[in-house]
Design goal:
Distance between the termini: 10 Å
Number of strands: 15
Structural class: alpha/beta
Number of domains: 1
Radius of gyration: 18 Å
Helix content: 25-40%
CATH topology: L-arginine/glycine Amidinotransferase, Chain A
Largest sheet: 3 strands, mixed
Strand content: 15-25%
Length: 292
């Protein structure tokens, strides 16, 4: 199995969202006006880096440029949104839907290109695709896509450029797919389960998710919270960096069935708080990305 590298953004030289977070209308997980604690931002970022380094993954840092700081594009730290990478050292750069985040992706191209990756781009006018809307399953050579921030053309073109064998579009009320589901991989990087926040699916789309899991012999690990705050907390915890035999999240997942499955299948679960980044609607999955 090829060694996976993890991509993260450096922090800006000025306080991250130091004047208060500007919430986007379609993101129910952002805390409008909240001012992250600068010292905790730094410490939580360092702690996440240490966890990943201690697991012996190489980390590639993308600089947080002065241009991004001046434009207050602080959500650049969520490197998940910028690109997808396949096993052929090909990177597809995403096209953001929100005007506030346009042009962020331009700042990752140089770093990835210098590492020897082939850079591909989506057509600008017709394709909308954000990295948090996708899960790439390497062994299955499959792409799972949301369709909240993505459009259908973006999902289909991403699948074509990634060279996957199949694309499955999953509809939910999560602003990104990684706020609705998360795959779990065994130690050989085979997908063995999907964690799911059932409350963000209507009945029809939940049945389609059940069918998908049954077709591929994946366990569907659903959790359901009718209380909005409990749901947001559970979805934040579920937003894990998911790697072979490993989950790294901001906190332990409270759902007993999920944790029993993790234990039974010898999946290591590590919690390292990124609470200040949670204020802007992102968690560990959002802060990281994979290079194959």
């Amino acid at each position: 199995m090829k060694k996976i590298k993890i991509v993260m953004s450096e922090l800006p030289s000025i306080p991250w969202w130091g004047d208060g977070i500007t919430a986007y209308p379609d993101n129910d997980m952002m805390k409008a006006g909240a001012i992250p604690n600068h010292a905790r931002v730094i410490n939580e970022h360092k702690a996440l880096v240490k966890v990943i380094s201690d697991l012996e993954f190489d980390i590639i840092f993308v600089p947080f440029s002065e241009q991004l700081e001046n434009a207050k594009k602080f959500d650049f730290v969520f490197t998940r949104d910028h690109f997808l990478c396949n096993q052929n050292k090909e990177v597809v750069i995403c096209n953001m839907r929100l005007p506030q985040r346009l042009e962020e992706t331009d700042f990752v191209k140089d770093t990835l290109g210098e590492l020897g990756y082939t850079i591909k781009t989506l057509p600008k006018n017709e394709c909308i695709a954000e990295g948090g809307e996708f899960f790439y399953l390497p062994n299955e050579n499959m792409l799972l896509s949301g369709c909240s921030r993505n459009n259908k053309a973006g999902a289909e073109t991403m699948a074509e450029l990634m060279g996957v064998n199949s694309l499955h579009i999953i509809y939910s009320q999560g602003y990104h797919l990684d706020t609705a589901i998360s795959p779990i991989f065994d130690s050989s990087n085979n997908c063995i389960a999907l964690m799911c926040a059932k409350e963000v699916f209507d009945d029809n789309n939940y049945k389609l998710l059940q069918t998908l899991c049954k077709q591929h012999n994946w366990e569907l690990l659903s959790q359901y919270y009718s209380n909005k705050e409990e749901s947001l907390n559970a979805r934040t915890a579920m937003n894990c960096l998911t790697l072979p035999g490993l989950l790294v999240g901001t906190s332990m997942i409270e759902d007993k069935r999920i944790m029993e499955f993790v234990s039974t299948n010898q999946i290591e679960f590590i919690a390292t708080s990124v609470s200040q980044f949670n204020l802007s609607g992102g968690s560990v999955h959002c802060l990281t990305n994979e290079l194959f």
